[in-house]
Amino acid sequence: KAGVTQTPRYLIKTRGQQVTLSCSPISGHRSVSWYQQTPGQGLQFLFEYFSETQRNKGNFPGRFSGRQFSNSRSEMNVSTLELGDSALYLCASSPVAGFDQPQHFGDGTRLSIL
Amino acid sequence: GENVEQHPSTLSVQEGDSAVIKCTYSDSASNYFPWYKQELGKGPQLIIDIRSNVGEKKDQRIAVTLNKTAKHFSLHITETQPEDSAVYFCAANTGANSKLTFGKGITLSVRP
Description:
A: mainly beta; B: 112 residues; globular
């Protein structure tokens, strides 16, 4: 069974631009969650999607948004990029909604803002 | 609160020795506690997890213990090997199971 796939693996953008990251969950998994990982703040929850609906959102500004498609694939978008948005963005999938079960992570997208 | 604290931040052990990593949590409603291993250039990989109705769980060289009263849980790795060197994260489901909150991570180095 293929794991969680994130594309692209690396991205370089400049301040003010926007970016879209993609996540394909494990086949059969319907929940996708996103995390931002930085050396200073560690792993921080961004949001969770299940059945094309955002269930929960972390403490991030409105510039961070996402969506989920009918095939459970998810995208996250960051608009008006800032230097502080440089991070590793990880997504995780699980069969159903909620976090009382194993979350399977992809290898992330490394976003660098110049 | 929904904090998960992890200590120490770095740990170095000799190959063959045991390593213990401890975490504390603050959300009384947390009932699921996974541990992840992250290697360079990779995403976190689940290595073991424990639920609040269990006090201990073991999988070969890895074990996790949970003390609900004290709100802490620990990862135990026995007979460490160089390939155990990585960053280890503890986590707990928080906010009425609305998210996973992670500790800051610990860098484990196993000296050959």
